[in-house]
Amino acid sequence: MNTILTVNTRTGDIRTSTCTEEELAWGGRSFIAHHLLGKTDPACDPLGRGNPLIIASGLLADTPVSTAGRLSIGGKSPLTGGAKEANVGGAAGRKMARLGMKAVILEDAPDDPRCRVLVIGKDRAELLDAPELAGQNTRATLSPLRERFGEQVGALCIGPAGEMRLTAAILATTDDTGVQLRVAGRGGLGAVMGSKGVKAVVFDDTGARPEEPFDRKALSAAARDLGAILKADPKTDNRHNLGTPAVLMLCNALGILPTRNFREGRFEHAEAISGEMIAELIDKRGGEGRRGLPCVQGCTIACSNVFADPSGKTTVASLQYENLGLLGSNCCIGDVDAVAELNDLSNQVGIDSIEAGAAIGVAMEAGVLAFGDAEGAKDLLRQVGAGTPMGRIIGSGVVTTGRVLGVRRIPAIKGQAIPAYDPRSLKGIGVTYAMGPMGADHTAGNALETAKTVDPQGRTGQVETSLRLQIRGAILDSLGVCLFIRPAFVKDPPLSARLLNTRYGWQWTYRDVRAMGLECLRAEQEYNTRAGVTEAMCDVPEFMRREPLPPHNTVFDVDREEMRHIWEIKLPEDIF
Amino acid sequence: MNTILTVNTRTGDIRTSTCTEEELAWGGRSFIAHHLLGKTDPACDPLGRGNPLIIASGLLADTPVSTAGRLSIGGKSPLTGGAKEANVGGAAGRKMARLGMKAVILEDAPDDPRCRVLVIGKDRAELLDAPELAGQNTRATLSPLRERFGEQVGALCIGPAGEMRLTAAILATTDDTGVQLRVAGRGGLGAVMGSKGVKAVVFDDTGARPEEPFDRKALSAAARDLGAILKADPKTDNRHNLGTPAVLMLCNALGILPTRNFREGRFEHAEAISGEMIAELIDKRGGEGRRGLPCVQGCTIACSNVFADPSGKTTVASLQYENLGLLGSNCCIGDVDAVAELNDLSNQVGIDSIEAGAAIGVAMEAGVLAFGDAEGAKDLLRQVGAGTPMGRIIGSGVVTTGRVLGVRRIPAIKGQAIPAYDPRSLKGIGVTYAMGPMGADHTAGNALETAKTVDPQGRTGQVETSLRLQIRGAILDSLGVCLFIRPAFVKDPPLSARLLNTRYGWQWTYRDVRAMGLECLRAEQEYNTRAGVTEAMCDVPEFMRREPLPPHNTVFDVDREEMRHIWEIKLPEDIF
What we know:
Two copies of one chain form a homodimer.
Chain A: E1 3-8, E2 14-18, H1 21-24, H2 28-39, E3 53-57, E4 71-76, E5 83-88, H3 92-98, E6 101-107, E7 116-121, E8 124-129, H4 139-149, E9 154-157, H5 160-163, E10 171-174, E11 181-184, H6 189-195, E12 200-204, H7 216-232, H8 234-242, H9 248-254, H10 275-285, E13 290-293, E14 304-308, E15 314-317, H11 321-328, H12 336-349, H13 353-365, H14 374-386, H15 389-395, H16 398-404, E16 412-413, E17 416-417, H17 427-435, H18 462-479, H19 486-491, H20 494-504, H21 510-531, H22 542-546, H23 560-564
Helix pairs in contact in A: 2-18, 2-21, 7-20, 11-12, 11-13, 12-14, 13-16, 14-15, 17-18, 18-21
């Protein structure tokens, strides 16, 4: 993975370059952070000619490490106005890595974005006109691409929302089988791809000869050790069985499950949309329904599902916690089939289901439709695809929806919708939302897993906890692995360095790995400062500091002054 | 003018306080700037509980100085996210001053904004429920208020757009006769008033005994001297005859008249919407049409008009240059009657006609309607009042309209629509738009008047010119006088200090006046920095640096680095 493919989307020029020494040590999120800071103008218009769309391989993308091969998508976010990395499982990451690519960079932008497909293979990179895909949903884009270029390809695409440059637009991809739709959801990067006039990127690794790792045997051994630790961890089994929805009842118990546009933290119909219920329904209904699927080839956790309707026909794959929390409880929709449909609709039109659920919740607060109105919610998402004025409002994310509809209670931080963990009763994640360069992003440092050791409702230790979690997140996102392999690094911190050293022949220590994570965050912070995302934006929304959240009646009360000094905290050696 | 009335719009508490020594030396815009910086949280949500709506009297508001009595309205702008002052003529300013009020401050905000009227008189301040005014247009609000409280009152109100908290919402008021509708247009302050649940503020100066000036005779003499200089200036006569539309043909000749969503700087039908044509039509049509009216009692320039339709019935009063440029040429509408109607519609629903014209231009670029489609444009403005999704989009201003409709060419700086002077061929005003704390605001430092001495298309001297103009603007806005009295201060700079000294018994020099202006700007700048309006936002939109503007094919090319140092420039003594 030592080449960078740069496509000028205005002129059509495509060039390949070899990574510099410095670039070789970056991967995924850290590549994006350093590239944005070093090579682009942070003051650029996110949908203008100066913002690149970066697709970057994680450092371990071409290794047999479980979960490795997640892709990082990045650029300046049209929602937050800052640096953004959204990462996604699926087939494309490993294929891109097998093609030896560190990154694919879509630069500049045409005046009139057309509908084009970028096809990348061994010794091949072409930008093809594809007018037949214009306006198509993500599924209706990815399926014909797999037909045209072969089942072996991995493809990324945008839906109609991305083509319209709606700022909540996602990039979608599939797993190897083409069954699951996986999305790089946060930050509106689909709109950035839309602004380039690129509807899809296809990676075909036919005939590719991946790089030889520095020490194949030692790398395999390290990967096996990681797999063994994971296997022995009880969380792995729970995730395998129930997927991310496993946490729903826990969040409900903690009182952090967004309900009624973040008015409550506990949902009266939580059980009906719980992980346990979903597993039960999948098993009972049979048909196309499945549990325990991997999203990336070779993942041993395999936490994905195919959720089928009562007749056994697929509704959505995979149904996840964030969708249940935002499109379900937050909208007071306690019907899991309806939530699954809403999830699928978001994926198909191509918008982030977190933004979608938050925006619909705000529209419900504005009286556009009633809380609990699933049919009305589906109609809104169909309107996004159709590009009606109301659809475009929703597709622009929760902040625009709230502003345009005159709603004051907007659950967003730095322009981005808050995920399904209300920070009033899980304060560590609130610090991440407020201070982290990504804005309200649960994968950037989720304090849920520290809830047993750090009182989630207390103020003490939240800032330090967040910093540790954020560094860890930056490391995992740079390796291109899933957050769920953390138990392996907790048990054996030097393992992270060992994996890199056996792959690349480096002599890194765990300290170097930690430094990589911190430097990634610092680069993102510096980019944000220059981009104008400043301290003034670093807080939870006003209502979360004033309005107590039932059932614990907590407000977010972590001191802003303490949060402000997060980057100066001296951390212990072990941050996992 | 030494009292401050503070109304807590959440609790209903009303209290009166006496100005501190420091506050006494502030007026209008400078009062707003220092109050915002010193007494509020710059990071607050503009439509939340922490942002005050400030109504402030200019320092000369209770003097006989020509044009004095313009009101300053201020707060954190929901459009720019920074400090905002919008000022307005009409009757209310002098009445507020006669009541001895330095400022009226609406603080906090109710959870559910109702429709209320704040009535202020001698020894009286009451917040009255007024459900009958809910949803009413500005005219249909101000007329019944004048009926209910008497023709002698001055009232400020918002339209349905403000009640909906649409971010392009204005405050409207009338002149003494109730004929002209005047608006504090920029920055969305109507939405701030809407967020307080206050539909209107009524000033009744019946029985008020204004303060005695320090030296009445000397003040009258100074005011007379000012009047005499104004009278002798040829520009005064031109303004009296043609009003602000007098500059339309000049702007067209300079190639800075926004046309076709800022694609061109010259409009093929400019003559049809020119000041000369308007004057001719007013005279020819007769009926209710009028020219040469004052907007503030006692103004000797009297540049306002009543524009009537062919049957002689009033369409709008007063029809002004900005409306002609934005709602006319920018939308390719060359029919002056249509532009007048669009202007009136903007006023009635209560949105800024500059934002409206720019937003409609962007909607035309997006293909929502065709350029030149006056009926379609009227329909969009009616939709604002009706609160349809598309209406709410337009009412949220040009940036939201552009984002939601997926348009890249958005003529805005710091979130606010660019007025009718394209900065590519009038570069000094571009520096004001980019660097000034108000964002794209022509009254904050308009280089049109320096176009004869500083080449408007050249890069040289633009930054210094802008700084001088900005300081001057801040002074005039703090005195509460019109920009059009500048000739008096050009001819006799110490006159500005003489007016203040005779009114207040101060010993100010012209240097002190200049310092007041600069300190006002610095306070606004500092507030903006803390609010997160930073250097990253300090530039013209991307397309204006890349896309040449016909007919002169200029781009905006003033060096960002040079602009960045604007506040460090050492100025000559005379900045008028």
